[in-house]
Amino acid sequence: MSRMTNDIENISTTISQSLPSLFSGVLTIVGTAAVMAWYCWQLALLSCATVILTLTATKILSGKVRKFSRRRQMYLGQLNGTVEEMVSGYRTVVAYNHQDITTENFCRASDQLTRAGIQTDIFSGVMGPVMNCIGNIGFVIIAAFGGYFSINGMISVGVISAFIVYAKQFSRPINEIAQIYGQLQTAIAGAERVFMVLDEENEEKGGKSLAVGRDAGVVFRNVNFSYSPGHPVVRDFTLTVPSGKKVALVGAAGSGKTTIVNLLMKFYDIDTGEILINHQDIHKVSRDSLRQNIAIVLQDTILFSDTIGNNLKYGREDASGEEMERAAQMSCLAGVLKGLPQGYDTMLTGSGENLSQGQRQLLAIARAFVADPKILILDEATSNVDTRTEKEIQDAMGRIMENRTSIVIAHRLSTIRDSDLIVVMDRGRIVEMGNHEELLEARGKY
What whole-number distance in Å separates Cα of residue 427 and Cα of residue 232? Predict the structure, then answer.
């Protein structure tokens, strides 16, 4: 966020203020140099000697400005991140009495930013006086050599006087350009951070359309995946999810359940193996086509600062009012809507902070119902609702899961016991499979 606001604002301000001065300065330098060369090319060349000094000083100082500007922008981003995190996590900070520690962390980040800012301003501020000093050296050179040339009859005293005026006019835009160059280094430091984001590879949008009819069977075949090379998270995962069946993935935290869902949604690409939907390799299918046929309800509910109706339509934009009403009834959201004065037009603030956690979960489930998917993924979808509401949601899920391929991730026994197949995972591998009764009799990991 800091890159998209502070850094871009920095670039915009620098360019808007610097480019006009840069163009006018270049034109002034070219015109003045031409007149000086016409009067006396020897003195003109001697005047250009100061340009070498200017370029050398600019290179040294601008390198320092760029270095500390890059550091300042980095610390500014860290400071913004610290503020955002602590404000959003205010209750946790207070609950654990971390106010003083949080203040210390903020002050430390702020002091680092201040130091980097001071260092940047020192080298930026020093550039002007250095350029003026070099300009004064140019006047001395013109006066000394101009006097020598005048004594030898090469030029008149009037030319010396004119040259001093032109030298001042020549050095002024050079000094301005040198200072602008220092400011540009600050903008370049910000631009580097912005382009790091822009240069990230986009998701590959190409591929065939996923052909899904009434059936939507999913097959994982010898799938291996690792977030970091050499540290596999999923190992030789092979599983068939029959069309229209409910399959539950269970296991300890970190066993790879959510990763399997991420791979099916193509949030990540697998290392080796295949994932097939109706015998079509999803690696060759476009992400848009794939995700149009899959709805997912995550454990962490994400809602947008918009009306409840528009949040429901996020699942499918062309959903009618009747379809939204049906989804609300099936997900038990209708009771929540009755308690809101504006119903579907109720505006959610702060990503749904004016609703309880359970109500947000119901809204996310209703959004998945509106999408009317061929494949439904529920990742701890009832983790934030009470037992009675969970039972109602499960009944509703039973209705919507009919003739749909469903993958459920859950830790509650009540959520998975009626699954057609329960897959027990451990460290990225399948260690047991079967229904609830079979796995209990096996007395294994389940």
Answer: 9
